[in-house]
């Protein structure tokens, strides 16, 4: 190998690392903007919208836990970008605990809210329950895999990112655009899934092909969405959901 080629290798590695930092930092910022925009009226800027209905304690706790996840996700991405991997790994323990709390709180909150009106007009709230519960199930699966592959950085970081994208439908559904409200699940699922496309593009640019972790995680999310809608309309689910909400 020539001396010129040897000199180019460190430069290529540095460029790849820089692109990686830009991509993951940029995606974390986009996610934070979507969450803030979606929940600004009902959570982040709530004092400025007094007409919004009061929050029951479980919704307050839910908001704190999920907001903490977004803050931690941005922090972890920033730590990696700053090459502070040791601190990143220490915070990973807190991330695992917080992810577990999210699944518990998300599940309980979904069940509690199923006893009220559906977020989508003319849709049975018990049928709608498959959407948030599905989010928690998929998030739990991807987070478990991310924790298992925590020492395989290429897999871990992709699973963490796609798992966080997978819980965004609730925020996307609350964006102040009429076509989202009119489109229902097709709109807020579809817009959320668009965020997976940059992940695939980044893989192609950086690796020449999509990473298996990105493809499998994205497939799980996308295929689960119509499946939830189909299950939600079955008699068996309505019976189960009625029994489930009876305990709250």
Count structural domains: 1
- What proportion strand? under 5%
Number-wise, the strands total 0
Shape: globular
Radius of gyration: 20 Å
Topology:
Elements: H1 3-44, H2 57-81, H3 85-113, H4 125-128, H5 130-148, H6 153-165, H7 169-173, H8 178-183, H9 185-194, H10 196-207, H11 212-232, H12 235-246
Helix pairs in contact: 1-2, 2-3, 3-5, 5-6, 5-11, 6-11
Task: Walk me through this protein's architecture.
This protein is mainly α and 248 residues long. The protein has one domain (19-246). It contains 12 helices and no strands. It has helices spanning 3-44, 57-81, 85-113, 125-128, 130-148, 153-165, 169-173, 178-183, 185-194, 196-207, 212-232, 235-246. The chain is globular, with a radius of gyration of 20 Å. The model has no long low-confidence stretch (mean pLDDT 90).
